[in-house]
Structures are given as structure tokens and as C-alpha cells.
Amino acid sequence: MFAKFFKNIPYEYRLAGTFFVIGLVWLITTDNLLLIAMDDKQLLVNVLIYKEWFSIIAGTIVIFLLTKYLIKKVQNANTKAEKHELLQTEFIKNISHELRTPMNAIIGFSELTMSLENTNDETKEYLKIIEKSSKELLTVVTDLVDTSLLSSGAMNVNPADFEIQPFIKTVYSYFTPIMGQNVRLELFNNGSQNGVTIFSDEEKLRRIFHNLVNNAIKYTYKGKIVIGYQLKEDQIIFFVEDTGVGIKKELHQNLFKKFKQIEIERLNRSGGSGLGLSICKEMIELLDGKIWLESQSGKGSTFYFSIPKKYIRE
């Protein structure tokens, strides 16, 4: 632990500390040497006085540098704490909005549906809005529950054998009816790679897929979204590719961190809890995999997540 702490201290402060130790040893040992080496008492007194003054000045400099370092560490810690608090505040505001919006829609359209003056067509339209709002509300609540379980380490992995191709098709079938008029959902053709069975947590993989496809739908206004998988080297790589607005390169680094997605949501003026991608990252890591993306602003995005090929059932 001490070695790690020492390594993290900047070079100039380590150097100052080294000189401090050398100076301390020098102070302890040189008095006796001077008494033995010098016969002139007046000269000896002068030398000792200058030595003491030098020691005081050197010690003061070392203490100043170390104090400066510690103050800087405290300031950095305070800055990080303030930034984290700011992100949490932004998150709470965002979540409050995300919860209130579908709740208001559910309440409002439920009241309209109960009105006797509604036609059958109006009732169906209201029920569709209620269903959509209920799903949005469920997504927000699920994100909060998943984040809580992941943070506490209480989320369990339940692996089982399942075939990849039918699994991908269920994701495709779920999203096909809700695609916009100008966006089509496509299933990647794996050719000879069909019929692969893996041992993993199907529900968590589905959750990851759903989060990524939802994101793609949110930011893709025309073109297509492609979902699929490929077997490459020592990995099974799943992907969600879109022709949407893309993500600026400077945002990639923090994209999978908690609350950071809020910044992207705000820049694109789109709703969201800011937790979806961080949940994806933590879930895929539970499955011994990893997640990454390729994206450029205005040129679409491709999100990849993988699990080791060792989980394939022969």
C-alpha cells in the first residue's frame, strides 16, 4: 500500500522527501564528525550555526512542498465530489421528468378513455398512448432497479444453454412493429454461422440488446438499424448498427459511465435516464464480456458487445 502511495506522488515531491531524509541523517551524524575534525572552537561554532540555518531553510522548503501537494490533493478531491454531486443532481432532475411525463400521459388518457363520448377509434388511440407511456415508465423503473442491484453487487447471473439465432429473431420481432416510417429494422444474415448454441444469461443479453436498439431508434430519424452477431477469433460479437446522428468522438470516453449519458441526451434533446449504457457495460462484464462503439457525429453508430467464444456449446 505504501509503495503504491509513494508511486502516485509527483517526482518533485519524492525528490524533496528524499532530500529531507538525507538531511535528517546528515544532521544527526555530522555534529560528532565536526567535533572530531575541527580544533578551532570559534570556527566550529560558526559552522554549526550555518548548518542549523541551512537545515531550517531546507526543512521549511520541504514542508512547504509537501503541504502544497496535500492541499492540491484535497482540492482535487473536493472538485471531484462537487462534480459527482452535480451529476447526481442532474440525474435526479432527469429521472423526475422521465417519471412524470409517462405518468401524466397515463392518467390523462385514462380519464379521456373513461369518457362516454369517445368513439371506438379514439378509445383505441388513447389506449395505444397509455400502453406506450406505461412501457416508458417501466423502462425507467427497471433502469433504477438494475442500477441499484449492480451497485450493491446483488445482481445474479443465471446462465443456461440457448441458440443465438432464435434469440436474435425475438429481439427483431419485438422491435419491428414499433419502428418509425422512415427507419427500417434489418436482421444481419450470418449464413453458415446459424445454429450456434451458447451458455450464458439470455435475459441479460436481451436486456443489453433492448437498451442498444432503443438508443438506436431514439437517434435514428431515417435509414436503417441492423442487429446481428458474428463469430470472430475468440469472441462472439453482437452488434447494433444505425444510420443515426452519431456521437462526437470526445464523448466516447465517458459514454458508459453512470449519469454521463445525460450529457449526450441533453445535446441531442432526447429523453432518457442516463443509465442505459452504464447498465449495459456492467451487465456484459458480469457475463465475462466487454462493450465498445464506433461512431462519428452525423455518420451513425455501431455498438458492439461480446462474450468469450469458450461459452459456445459444441
TrEMBL record:
<keyword id="KW-0902">Two-component regulatory system</keyword>
<dbReference type="InterPro" id="IPR036097">
    <property type="entry name" value="HisK_dim/P_sf"/>
</dbReference>
<feature type="domain" description="Histidine kinase">
    <location>
        <begin position="94"/>
        <end position="311"/>
    </location>
</feature>
<keyword id="KW-0418">Kinase</keyword>
<feature type="transmembrane region" description="Helical">
    <location>
        <begin position="53"/>
        <end position="71"/>
    </location>
</feature>
<dbReference type="InterPro" id="IPR004358">
    <property type="entry name" value="Sig_transdc_His_kin-like_C"/>
</dbReference>
<dbReference type="Pfam" id="PF00512">
    <property type="entry name" value="HisKA"/>
</dbReference>
<dbReference type="InterPro" id="IPR050736">
    <property type="entry name" value="Sensor_HK_Regulatory"/>
</dbReference>
<dbReference type="Pfam" id="PF02518">
    <property type="entry name" value="HATPase_c"/>
</dbReference>
<dbReference type="InterPro" id="IPR005467">
    <property type="entry name" value="His_kinase_dom"/>
</dbReference>
<keyword id="KW-0597">Phosphoprotein</keyword>
<keyword id="KW-1133">Transmembrane helix</keyword>
<dbReference type="InterPro" id="IPR003661">
    <property type="entry name" value="HisK_dim/P_dom"/>
</dbReference>
<keyword id="KW-0812">Transmembrane</keyword>
<keyword id="KW-0472">Membrane</keyword>
<feature type="transmembrane region" description="Helical">
    <location>
        <begin position="12"/>
        <end position="29"/>
    </location>
</feature>
<keyword id="KW-0808">Transferase</keyword>
<dbReference type="InterPro" id="IPR036890">
    <property type="entry name" value="HATPase_C_sf"/>
</dbReference>
<dbReference type="GO" id="GO:0016301">
    <property type="term" value="F:kinase activity"/>
</dbReference>
<protein>
    <recommendedName>
        <fullName>histidine kinase</fullName>
        <ecNumber>2.7.13.3</ecNumber>
    </recommendedName>
</protein>
<dbReference type="InterPro" id="IPR003594">
    <property type="entry name" value="HATPase_dom"/>
</dbReference>
